[in-house]
Amino acid sequence: MYITKCGPDGNFSEGEMVPFGPISLSPSSGVLNYGQGLFEGLKAYRKTDGPILLFRPEENALRMRIGAERMCMPAPTVEQFVDAVKQTVLANKRWVPPTGKGSLYIRPLLMGSGAVLGLAPAPEYTFIIFVSPVGNYFKEGLAPINLIVEDKFHRATPGGTGSVKTIGNYASVLLAQKIAKEKGYSDVLYLDAVHKKYLEEVSSCNIFVVKGDVISTPAVKGTILPGITRKSIIDVALSKGFQVEERLVSVDELLEADEVFCTGTAVVVSPVGSITYQGKRVEYAGNKGVGVVSQQLYTSLTSLQMGQEEDWLGWTVQLN
User: Fold this and answer.
1) Where, by residue number, does the polypeptide cross the bilayer (predicted)?
2) Tell me: the pLDDT tens digits for 49-102?
3) Residue 86 annotated to the active site
4) Which listed residue, of 144, 170, 201, 208, carries a Cα 20 to 30 Å from 271's Cα?
5) Contact at 8 Å (CB) between 288 and 142?
6) What sign does the dihedral 116-118-121-123 (CA atoms) show?
7) How far apart are CA 194 and CA 88, in angstroms?
């Protein structure tokens, strides 16, 4: 794993590769006491002819820098972040699965590691990158998920930290997710905290609603994470001739949609087979619950990510 630290000057040291294992932290570190931490997630894929591809790593670097500013933390430069990702993947290249068998998940982690008992930014920060091979999210290609709309708990509020990938955003969704899974649902879809009628996002995915040839997704305005897969799917959809609208999307539109899908690093594209809202269940037709649009966009994006299609958008970075 890669590790580097920085002090109050905000400049990270060159960094080094060390064996994956436990790290030492003060009990009064900023991350443990005040949640001063951010993480990222991206993947490396192996092409059929051997080389390894990264997908848009500079976007993760930029998002971490934006999140770090919100959490009052220094962050590595884009160049340092991308170089660290490359080093970590190359040091673990034997763990990158063969083409079509999965990918190498990459987890950059930035945290306030310095001791700080009073409520204040930590005096020292640690940036780590570790990896893990992962299989395909769905064993049999795409498989639809069943969501329940949550109208009591909220993931984020205006002025909060919903738009950055801070660690506390994820702990706060665990209870609603646990309750939903106990009832047989795959995950939870959150509504806005003010009007309680506009879609926000699933626990760790962005949501898209299809009606005719128009694809709508909630606009990124401070409470929704600006997903990199989300951004990529929008560009791919536009290139295929779809009209894409980023705006307020009501729960009523969701229930009347032709098709619904989620996007995220782990799932890439996840078709939604059903939505349950206030006891009413709506099912979406398609090939075993997989809509035509979901399938088309999934195939297009994964082909780009795995180097099976010419990268006309310049999104992949090849490692030799």
Assistant:
1) none
2) 889 999 999 999 999 999 999 999 999 999 999 999 999 999 999 999 999 899
3) no
4) 170
5) no
6) negative
7) 42
Task: Give, in order, the Cα–Cα distances in Å from 69 to each of 124, 267, 286, 320.
Answer: 15, 28, 43, 34
Tell which residue, 111, 100, 206, 113, has the closest CA to residue 155: 206
Q: With beta carbons less than 8 A apart as the criterion, state whether 270 and 297 touch.
A: no
Which residue in the list 43, 152, 165, 211 is annotated as catalytic?
Answer: 165
Helix (H, G, I), strand (E, B) or coil at 150: strand
Phi, psi of 236 (to 5 degrees): -65, -45
* Core vs surface per residue 117-126: b (16+ CB within 10 A) or e: eeeebbebbb
Amino acid making up residue 318: Q
Summarize pLDDT for 221-272 with one digit per residue, the tens.
999 999 999 999 999 999 999 999 999 999 999 999 999 999 999 889 999 9
**Beta 145-150 vs 268-277: how paired, if at all?**
parallel
Q: Is the pTM of this model over 0.85?
A: yes
